[in-house]
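Annotated sample (chain length 67).
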Amino acid sequence: MSSMAMQLKVNRIVTGTKIPHPCGDPNLPTEADRDLRRAVIQCSLSALQREVKGPTLFVPDVTFTSG
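Output written by the structure step:
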């Protein structure tokens, strides 16, 4: 949904994993899902602290492996 957010000119856009589970992946083992959710939230908090001018995309530092 990040492309839609860019079109709507949202200032801070944090990419998630999937539309039904943007902040996690229930197909991952519990610990991996927790690490994924933590990375997305930490990226979101970092995005709030940054000054931006116009739409800016923030990508959590994780690898999304589940299909």
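Annotation: The chain has one domain: 2-58.
Annotation: The chain has two helices and two strands.
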